[in-house]
Amino acid sequence: MKFYITTPIYYVNSEPHIGSAYTTIIADIIARYKRLMGYEVFFLTGTDEHGQKVYQAAQQAGKEPKEFCDELAEKFKSLWKELEITNDHFVRTTDDYHVRTVQIFVEKMIENGDVYKGVYKGWYCIPCETYWNEDEVIRDGSSVLCPECKRPVKWLEEENYFFRLSKYRDALLKHYEEHPDFVEPDFRKNEMLKILEGGLKDLSITRTTFKWGVPLPRDPSHVIYVWVDALINYVSAIGYGWDEETFKKWWPANVHLIGKEINRFHSIVWPAMLMSVGLPLPEKVFAHGWLTVNGQKISKSLGNAIDPRYFVNKYGNDVVRYYLVREISFGKDGDFSEEKLVGRLNSDLANDYGNLLHRATAMVQKYFNGSLPRPSEGEGIDNWLKERYFQTKDEYLKLMDSYKLTEALEKLWLFIADVNKYFNDTQPWVLAKENKMDRLGTVLYNTLETILKVAIMTSPVMPDTSEKVFGRLSFDAKPSLEHLEEWGVLKPGSAVKHGEPLFQKVEVQNLKKVVETVIVEENTITIDEFSKVDLRVAKVVEAERIPNSRKLIRLVVDLGSEKRQIVAGIAEHYTPEELVGKNIIVVANLKPAKLMGYESRGMLLAAKHGETLRLLTVDGDIAPGAKIS
Ligand code: ME8
Question: Model-level pTM?
Answer without folding.
Answer: 0.84
